Inverse folding.
């Protein structure tokens, strides 16, 4: 592998991320979010069971204290709630509120409509997804899957946690 080619690829990837993030400023300001809090909202899929704090930390590649700080910010803004994990009462899960669903939807819509990746055609996107999945050693995501949009299914399946979390 050519170091120079790898460097070009990393710079291009960083440029796509930077351009996309730069174009999110307006929606982030409108919802009083930072990049980290927006990323945390995006990591909570309303079509799945609410993630545990441990799962969230893994999805966001951060440690528990950092995640607690981010989730506290989202909780203070009324975008998420912590609840007791129904499968493990010692653990807490993170639930989107209605306001959280709306903010998440706005962030995703802004990101998808403003990313430089939107210039790629379907075949190019499929190829990119496969290449990126190989790079991070994950199974490729189905490209023909419906877009990530808020859903009311399985959103609040846990009971609210006490305020001592």
């Amino acid at each position: 592998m050519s170091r120079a080619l790898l460097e070009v690829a990393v710079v291009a990837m960083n440029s796509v991320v930077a351009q996309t993030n730069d174009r999110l400023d307006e929606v982030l300001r409108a919802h009083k979010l930072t990049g980290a809090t927006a990323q945390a909202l995006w990591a909570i899929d309303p079509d799945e069971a609410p993630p545990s704090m441990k799962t969230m930390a893994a999805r966001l590649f951060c440690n528990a204290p950092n995640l607690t700080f981010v989730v506290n910010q989202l909780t203070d803004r009324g975008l998420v709630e912590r609840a007791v994990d129904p499968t493990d009462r010692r653990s807490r899960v993170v639930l989107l509120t209605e306001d959280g669903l709306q903010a998440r939807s706005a962030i995703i819509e802004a990101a998808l409509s403003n990313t430089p990746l939107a210039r790629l055609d379907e075949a190019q996107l499929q190829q990119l997804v496969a290449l990126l999945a190989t790079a991070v050693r994950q199974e490729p995501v189905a490209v023909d899957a419906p877009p990530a949009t808020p859903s009311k299914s399985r959103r609040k399946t846990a009971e609210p946690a006490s305020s001592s979390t």
Observations:
- The chain has a mean pLDDT of 86.
